[in-house]
Design brief:
With 54 residues, the protein is an all-alpha fold. Helices cover 80% and strands 0% of the residues. The protein starts with 6 loop residues before the first helix and ends in a 5-residue tail after the last helix.
């Protein structure tokens, strides 16, 4: 931010940024990370390790 922005504009920008990060980005990233890890485990069992308990 530069000096030309008012404190009200900066607060609005920060609030919108927080809402975007907390409501959209964090849940999407967490689902992608968990799904990717699950896929990696599944693929490793399919290709290399075999099913659990064997």
């Amino acid at each position: 931010m530069n000096q030309a922005t008012s404190p009200e504009q900066q607060k609005k920008y920060e609030r919108n940024t927080f809402i975007f990060l907390a409501v959209f980005l964090a849940p999407i990233l967490s689902v992608i990370i968990v799904a990717g890890f699950g896929f990696a485990i599944w693929f490793s069992q399919l290709a290399f390790l075999g099913p659990p308990g064997t």
